[in-house]
Amino acid sequence: MAAPVDLELKKAFTELQAKVIDTQQKVKLADIQIEQLNRTKKHAHLTDTEIMTLVDETNMYEGVGRMFILQSKEVIHNQLLEKQKIAEEKIKELEQKKSYLERSVKEADGLVTPVFYITLSPFHTQDRIFHPALPAISA
Question: Which residues form a coiled coil (predicted)?
C-alpha cells in the first residue's frame, strides 16, 4: 500500500529538486550577464568621457570588423550613449528576471521541505496524503 505513495513522493521531490537546481543556474547566469553589461556600460562611459575632451571637429576611426571607418566625434558620441542606454535597459530586464527567479527558488525550496518530511506529517494516512501546498495523492 505505501509503495505507490512513496514512489509518488519520491517523484515529486525529485521534480522539485530539479526545478530548484535549474532556477539557481538561471540566477547565476543572470548575474554573469549583468556583470558583463555593467563592464560594457562602464567601458562606453569611459571612452565617451575621453572623446568629449577632444575638439568638436575631430574625426575618429571606428573599428568595424577588420576595418576602420572615419566618423565624426558627434557620431561616435551618439553611438556610445546609445550603447550605454541599451546596456542599462538590459540590466533592468535581467534584474527583474533575477528577482522573479529568486522568488521561484524560495517557493520551490518551501515545497521541497514539506515533501521531504511529509511522511512524518500527522496528515499522512494509509489512504491519502494531504498538504496545503501539494495536490492530494491517492494511495
Answer: 77-111
pLDDT one-digit tens code per residue, 33-46? 999 999 999 999 99
Burial (Cβ within 10 Å: 0-12, 13-18, ≥19) of residue 122: exposed
State what percent of residues in the chain have pLDDT above 70: 76
Give the separation between CA 119 and CA 35, rounded to whole angstroms.
43
- Closest by CA to 4, choosing from 114, 127, 88, 104, is 127
Q: Where are the domains of the chain?
A: 17-112
What is the C-alpha to C-alpha distance for residues 63 and 41, in angstroms, rounded to an integer? 18
Residue with cell 522568488: 103
Q: What is the CATH class of 17-112? A: mainly alpha
Q: Where are the beta strands (DSSP E) in the chain?
A: 59-64, 67-72, 128-131, 134-138
